[in-house]
Amino acid sequence: MGVQRVALVAVLAVVGGVGVLLPYVAADMPTELEVEYLHEGKECGNPSKNGDTIFVRYTGRMHPDLGGAMFDSTNNRKPVKIVLGAGRVIRGWELGLLNMCPGGRRRITVPPTYGYDPGTHADVPEGSTVVFEMELVHIDDEDFWSKVKPGMWICFTAMVGCSIWYRIWKNTKEAAVKQQYKRVQ
Q1: CATH number, domain at 93?
Q2: pLDDT for 99 beyond 80
Q3: Residue 19 φ/ψ, nearest 5 degrees
Q4: What is the Cα gyration radius of the chain?
Q5: Structurally, how many domains does the chain consist of?
């Protein structure tokens, strides 16, 4: 894990009604994506992968060394729908949500290089490290073929039945036309 050292920063504080510049040393900030497994979730045969449509709940906070203030959450909303690998969410989510099973929870620390592009999130200052607690709620195509097969058999049986009925109807009609043609001659 790489670490970026942030030098001395001056912070304006109001002390006794007077503005005073105080030194503040920011702690070491991560420069690489960090993924902490909080809960594995239920066992699944097909964990999340690129191309899957997944639904997640999350809480986004500033890095604890930047105050840890929450800037976004789905606590009072529906889970967010994401297509992994489509590039529609930050890169930290794309990588941090791979190989998860439903019910799994992770804490993903996202440095600026894996986070928001400048100006894309009003509540996140440019160059900030953010931390997300993510829960994978559902993988849309978790077991696609086992869900599709019963329906396919019904469709296949209906198609075969229609084909057989059509051939019988066609042969019967052709025989009737031939018989009527013979009577006319």
Answers
A1: 3.10.50.40
A2: yes
A3: -70, 125
A4: 30
A5: 1
